[in-house]
Design brief:
32% of the residues lie in helices and 23% in strands. It has 317 residues and is of the alpha/beta class.
Length: 317
């Protein structure tokens, strides 16, 4: 019998990273003025899809638990030390021989757009046997990414059998991606993946093709343009918020963390998307993934600048 863990609001199973973030005057090019540039800013910070989403959930007041693997190197130890500082329960993290996942991120200092070069030791891969069934049973929401898809699928199916909703971070195409989409409750796609899965570039048509009876909502994040979703047969467009972008790294992870927070408040899909877009936009005004997570109050205030967003606690809520 699988032992039960202490309850939590959200359990995240997936990837973490140490990010070496460098702000340059522009993207490097092989010739001319941009082949050699002085660095404007440099930061070493924790990131990774699921670890960052859990840090967002914790900062927004949820009891967040993270399960993943770290390396036995200095970077792995940094992740283990940093997650608790973000109020994330890291007691389920395992340490593996080898180096921790890391990314070299180059930021265009003029636009905030970034290029990511990453590496992950194969020893960090989570298998189906690594899925913590007791942790899943103790959570109100499960969140998975698509880095270790076999483990994510098993976890999602187990949660579904228990009636626990599953949110997701889906941004790559493999032979198991369709299975993972079918396993989760809330498929949240990076833009472009819907077309790879269906052959259809139109967001609405692609989501309708992908929708299954158990899906409560399907969503595509579309950068500065916000997000679109299909929920209850309705197609919804939720525009993004205009900000002065410093670094877009982690904005999608922040979107998902904010999505989970709003979901657990019982909000409707329009409010969920508006709030998640606001949090993601504010994340772009800071440097680094976890380092750039915005405050809950600031995210609510930006969302409330839209007349369609009803503030929690107001008579209309």
């Amino acid at each position: 019998m699988t032992p039960l863990r202490d309850p939590c609001d959200v359990l995240g199973i997936g990837a973490n990273s140490i990010d070496y973030v460098t702000v340059a005057p522009a993207f490097p090019r092989p010739e001319g003025w941009f082949s050699k540039m002085q660095i404007r800013r440099h930061l070493v910070t924790c990131g990774g899809q699921t670890a960052t989403a859990m840090a967002v959930c914790a900062k927004f007041g949820l009891r967040a638990r993270y399960v993943g693997a770290v390396g036995a190197d200095e970077n792995g130890q940094r992740v283990l030390a940093d997650l608790p500082r973000h109020q994330v329960d890291a007691s389920g993290v395992v340490t593996r021989d080898g180096r921790n996942q890391f990314a070299v991120i180059v930021i265009d200092g003029e636009t905030g757009e970034r290029a990511v070069l990453w590496d992950r030791d194969p020893s960090l891969a989570l298998t189906e046997d690594d899925v913590p069934l007791g942790d899943i049973a103790a959570a109100r929401v499960l969140h998975v990414d698509d880095v270790d898809q076999a483990a994510a699928i098993r976890a999602a199916r187990h949660a579904a059998a228990l009636g626990i909703p599953v949110t997701s971070d889906l941004d790559r195409m493999t032979d198991r991606t369709a299975d993972l989409v079918d396993a989760v409750t809330y498929p949240i796609f990076a833009d472009g993946l819907h077309e790879k899965l269906t052959g259809c570039a139109d967001h609405e048509e692609a989501l309708r093709r992908l929708c299954r009876p158990h899906h409560r909502a399907l969503c595509v994040t579309i950068g500065q343009h916000g997000a679109v979703a299909l929920a209850g047969g309705r197609f919804i467009r939720s525009p993004g918020f205009k900000v002065e972008a410093v670094d877009t790294t982690g904005s999608g992870d922040v979107f998902r963390g904010a999505f989970i927070h709003a979901l657990l408040q019982g909000w409707d899909i329009e409010r969920i998307l508006c709030f998640a877009n606001a949090a993601a936009a504010l994340a772009c005004t800071g440097l680094g993934a976890m380092a750039g997570i915005p405050d809950l109050e600031a995210s609510l205030a930006l969302a409330a600048s839209r007349s369609s967003f009803v503030q929690p606690g107001s008579p209309e809520a």
